[in-house]
Amino acid sequence: MRVEKKLPKIALRAKRLDDAALDYQWQTDLEFSRLHVQPPLTLSFTEFAAEYAIILKNQWPGRIQFAIETGEGLHIGDCACHNINRATKEAEIGINIGRREYWGQGYGVAALRGLVDYTFRQTDLQKLRLRTLPDNLRAQRCFAKAGFTVAGSVREGEVSFVQMELTRRDWEKQAEKQ
User: Fold this and answer.
1) Which long-range contacts (CB under 8 A, 24 or more apart) does 33-42 make?
2) Which of 4, 64, 72, 143 is deepest in the core (most CB within 10 A)?
3) How many of the other CB atoms lie within 10 Å of CB of 167?
4) Tens digit of pLDDT for each residue in 56-104?
């Protein structure tokens, strides 16, 4: 019998303007950029903060986003449900633990489970998808612990991704077991 390690306490909260400094730090980090398959930001912090304020003020209905905090209230990352398709009842989700000292300690699993629970309880979405690089095994283990299963691979330009998904039905079955 395999016993699951107890997950750390986290809180998901609304993003705030004072999150901009850490988000900027993470998005200008080379390793973060590689894992997210995007070039590091080249904007100045002043430009980034101005855009950040506009985005926070003008939330669009196709996105649900949160900051992730430890049980002690330390901001360590963020997560989002985006590209929400109301017709197909599907969406993509993503997670970022920006503080490296919190990698591999269960914070990502706890946050992802929180985001999935929130999304399935508050919306009528039926399927959530995410993708990661094939060599990002830590992320794949995190996603699997949160209930996602490999659904294949997808290509975007020159880059291949492992795609994983979780249906509402599978989430409900998992919730019954807990």
Assistant:
1) 35/132, 35/133, 35/136, 35/139, 36/96, 37/133, 37/156, 37/159, 37/161
2) 143
3) 16
4) 887 777 789 999 999 999 999 999 999 999 999 999 999 999 999 999 8
The pTM of this model reads 0.90
Task: In whole angstroms, give the CA distance from residue 128 to residue 103.
Answer: 23
Per DSSP, the residues of 66-110 read EEEEETT--EEEEEEEEEEETTTTEEEEEEEE--GGGTTTTHHHH
- State pLDDT tens for residues 13-22: 999 999 999 9
Alpha-carbon distances, residue 28 vs 21, 40, 132, 164 (angstroms): 11, 5, 19, 27
- pLDDT for res 1: 44
Residue 41 has pLDDT above 60, yes or no: yes
Collapsed DSSP state (helix, strand, coil) of residue 133:
coil
**Residue at 126: amino acid letter:** Q
Q: Which of 65, 71, 64 is nearest to 11 (CA)?
A: 71
Cα 41 to Cα 98: distance, rounded to the nearest angstrom: 15
Q: Find out whether 68 and 94 touch, Cβ atoms under 8 Å.
A: no
Backbone angles phi, psi at 130, to 5 degrees: -150, 165
CA 98 centroid distance within chain: 11
